[in-house]
Specification:
The protein is built from 18 helices and eleven strands. With about 425 residues, the chain is of the alpha/beta class. The chain has a single domain, classed as Alpha-Beta Barrel (TIM Barrel). Strands 1-5-6-7-8-9-10-11 form an eight-stranded parallel beta sheet. The chain has a three-stranded antiparallel beta sheet with strand order 2-3-4, with no helix packed on it. Strand 7 (about 195), helix 8 and strand 8 (about 225-230) form a beta-alpha-beta unit. It is globular and about 70 Å long. Mean pLDDT is about 90; it is low at about 70-90.
Amino acid sequence: MKDGLRFVDSDMHIQEPGDLLEKYLDPEFKSRVTWAVDGKGKISRRTWTIDGLPTGADTELQQFRKKAASSKATGPIMGAATGVLSASRIADTGRLDFAIDRGYDEEAQIMGMEMEGIDIAVLFPTGGLGLLARDNMDPHLSHALSRAYNDWIYDFCQHCPERMKFAAMLPLHDVNLACHELKRAVQELGAVASFIRPNMVNRHFWHSNYWDPLYSLHEELDVSWCFHEGTGAWNSNMNALYGENRFYRHVASHWIEMQQALIAMIIGGVFEFHPKLRVGYLEAQNSWVPGILTRIEWDYANYRESHAPYLSLTPKEYFQRNCWAAVEGSEPEIAGTAELIGAHRMCISTDYPHFDSNFPNVSNNLLNNVSREIAAAIFMGGASLYNFSEEDFQKAHAAAEASQQRQAAVGEG
């Protein structure tokens, strides 16, 4: 808990080991994957190349080296982690040393959760953000990569399954294979959500009937559909618009790709025809949500009857029934956004351990930024997004107490 408040981290990240695919990928597909090694033959972390193409576009897009910022030379960029927005750039602060020393293992994940006061965290990938982020991938390779990641993250979560949950990776290059993997991940591995980038896949965008079987299966299995962007996707429109400049692409991809997904789902009738679908829009802040809803509402009078006669609710009503959007704690617009869309439709992401996270001060920043009542609702937003019950919290609390008792016993010994 955080200061007596229950806290669900709706979007906490792991750092995959470099040998994940070597250990978990179906041998039939290993010849199509290569990875970098150091002078001792150790596999470098997350430097995978699949069918000759790196998992992220940044390496290919960036043709010129940039000057690296260093806290040792110039001080932390924009100040300390307790400042506003993503001021920390935590790689230079030393606050991840505990995780680096442990190789970002399972115990380090729990240690990070304790530092923020997290009861339950839903885990998302890091290198895996770009693993399938391209068009025209062999669907069976896409499926094999998804299975490998999901099997690994399942094993990772077994360290403390009461507190660590995960979002499943899906092979979206074939909707039927995606359905098979979602069912396996949920029913056999215990996934509580899917992880999906908002980028268009193989020319199918999110209002397409192509995705109906996958939407329906999420409803049937009662798990959440979670959009999560990550700059560097090969199939992101932002590459064509902004090319090499990652600053442009980082700003645009996290907001604009997410906005387009929400527009497509509302106007395209996804929420009308799939009323039980729960969708999270993660790691994109959320002050853009009220404006997008207002813009759609503005055009309702002109286009609803002629272009979307199937819609029965207003944009805000769909959002408040089906959607949640995440904040990262220190955005100055949080209170105003909560007033417009409701704090109960907001959740929070620590984004641990990424460079632009304010870990371990995400929860502190939220409490310092808004009233305790609003903070409590946002801390618990992930519970409603992922449908966590009182029983889930009781199990998480018991697991945390047992862990603390073991640590105390070790300390006394």
